[in-house]
Amino acid sequence: MTLQELKQCALITDIPIMSDETIEAISKEIAVHHCFSVLEIGTAIGYSSLSLAHSHPHIHITTLEKDEDRYEEALRHKATLDPRNQVNMILVDAFEYIPSQYYDCIILDGAKASNQRFFQRYFPFLKQSGCMLIDNIDFHGARTEDIDHRSRQFRKMIHKLNEFESWIMKHQNVDVVKMNVGDGLLKITHKPHDT
Ligand SMILES: C[S@@+](CC[C@H](N)C(=O)[O-])C[C@H]1O[C@@H](n2cnc3c(N)ncnc32)[C@H](O)[C@@H]1O
Predict the structure, then answer these.
(1) What is the pLDDT of the chain when averaged over all its residues?
(2) Which DSSP letter does residue 95 get?
(3) What phi, psi does 129 have (nearest 5°)?
(4) Which atom of ligand 1 is found nearest the CA of 51?
(5) Of 19, 82, 115, 170, most Cβ neighbours within 10 A?
(6) Is the beta carbon of 109 within 6 A of some atom in ligand 1?
(7) 182 close to ligand 1 (CB < 6 Angstrom)
């Protein structure tokens, strides 16, 4: 199995994975911030974590997944696609996991309606020089005014995503940049310390 085949496998089986453009943008941030340690929320079947590990042989990624079937499948892909043993896959609900270290990069790619709770739980574990990256902030271009016909659950998720974006943009202690990559990538960093 190659990474390309893993991507095809996810697309065929309808498992949501990051776009290539998003993985490329995250890769650049990993280089710019000189990241060694990465925490990802939302492994799915391992495409993003195994791709990032492949592009950056020096990094270590811990990735969390709460769905047992996806976790088992991700582990099978790790067996062939992680020759340097860079990726640590953990079967856990991210709301129960307690990190034992600080990270250079934290990627939020779990349930989209939970971004604010993920942020509050994990931002304290981001190193001062690190970056938090949040995918799908514009969720496939869905805007509040266009989604009347969608399910209640979908509308609620879009509402929560928008609410989080407004909330984080007003947050006093962080810098936020919205990148026009994939369907919106947010980059959140600590405000520099006063000198
Ligand atoms: C968009 S997919 C992740 C895709 C993956 N990052 C990739 O690009 O290859 C989101 C995943 O997050 C998982 N997830 C959602 N909420 C979670 C939570 N609270 N803890 C752990 N995993 C969670 C889902 O089960 C799903 O597999």
Answers:
(1) 93
(2) T
(3) -90, 5
(4) 9
(5) 115
(6) yes
(7) no
Torsion of CA 65, 113, 155, 181, to 10 degrees: -80
Give the three-class secondary structure for 123: helix
Cβ pair 189, 131 in contact under 8 A = yes
Concatenated DSSP letters for 34-70?
T--EEEEE--TTSHHHHHHHHH-TT-EEEEEE--HHH
pTM reported for the whole predicted model: 0.95
Q: Is 95's C-beta closer than 6 angstroms to any atom of ligand 1?
A: yes
Find out whether the beta carbon of 29 lies less than 6 Å from any atom of ligand 1.
Answer: no
Q: Probe ligand 1: pick from 65, 77, 157, max atoms within 8 Å of CB?
A: 65
Which CATH number applies to 3-190?
A: 3.40.50.150
126 in Cβ contact with 106 (< 8 Å):
yes
For the stretch 100-127, pLDDT in tens is 999 999 999 999 899 999 999 999 999 9
- Give which of 114, 120, 55, 107 is closest to 81, Cα–Cα: 55
Q: Tell me the per-residue pLDDT of 174-190, one tens digit each, with 9 for 90 and over.
A: 999 999 999 899 999 99
State phi, psi for 144 to the nearest 5 degrees.
Answer: -50, -40
Of 15, 8, 111, 12, which is closest to residue 66 (Cα–Cα)? 111
